[in-house]
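S.,

As promised, the zinc ion run. Input:
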Amino acid sequence: MDKDLYSVLGVGEKATEDEIKKAYRKLARKYHPDANQGDKRAEEKFKEISDAYDILRDPEKRARYDDVRSGRAYFGGGGMPGGGFETPGGGFEGFEDLLSSLFGGGIGRSSRRQTPSGEVEVPFATAALGGRVEATIRLSRSCAVCGGAGGTGEKTCQACKGSGRRTEKRGAFSTMHPCPVCGGRGKVLTSACSSCGGTGRTTSNDRMIVDIPPGSSDGDLLRLRQPDGSSAILRLRVPPDRFFRREGLDIHCTITISAPRAALGTTMMIRTLEGRIKLRIPAGTQPGTVLRVPSRGVPSGGSRGDQFVHVEVSIRPPSGDSERRLWEQLLDHEGRLRRREAD
Ligand SMILES: [Zn+2]
Ligand SMILES: [Zn+2]
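Predicted complex:
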């Protein structure tokens, strides 16, 4: 493997998830295509950083990568479906191959696995209401040089002598498996395409406008039509909002009002998904009261969820003598009322 993912991000192999995230953010900001218009080297670097981060931030992929890196596991053999290559070491070489194995991406042209090819961050309100998001997305597409074939020429696979099968003897039984080198085709390509490293796919960072359907949530997968006609899967990342919480089609939020306001009633400006509205809070509102604002939630099939405003009441000690006297007056008044009722 030509690139060590840890050194790409400039972190140690014991780095925590947080350290990896921080290192990635810093580098991504520096090399982002937006900040380096037309700079090829920065673009390459950005891709390299994104690739490394894709693996190291995912505990499962990272563990697999650590195994490969330390030589505990051998990578690349396992059933390459399209067209494998015989390399002197007997395996698949290069960074792209490792990525393909991890993502199932490069190999995906014949195995129809749905692996997200990119991630897009969507603001909370846009995810709820639907809308458009502009994003730089790493897309995988058919290699323009080899047309997706992964290379040229064909010869009989040496590993299986062209049978496409591998037979394993277990005592009296023998079992048959597809040949791991040629993926059962019986043939291998004679030379790998240097542009895509034999994977048949290339990746690039593209600036795109993405249509987000209403009611989208964090982790949703979105199918995106690519310019070459194939489709890419995008994973939506919706960061939590400081004020809103979503429960199905409803939006919940919490406001805190002072004790005098709760007693006297008041009006407040409340954030909704689409700007602020005036909300009337009735006199004598108890802590924990939930007020419903109809049809301010997530749209779905012609109707909409509601927004629920949870009211909390802040009760604190008097801030000074004059405030203390006001509360004492209230208390005296309450005492007089009670005595009068008792008479
Ligand atoms: Zn190619
Ligand atoms: Zn074979």
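The pocket of zinc ion (ligand 2) is lined by residues 157, 159-160, 164, 179, 181-182, 186 (CB under 6 Å). Residues 72-113 have pLDDT under 50 and may be disordered.

- D.
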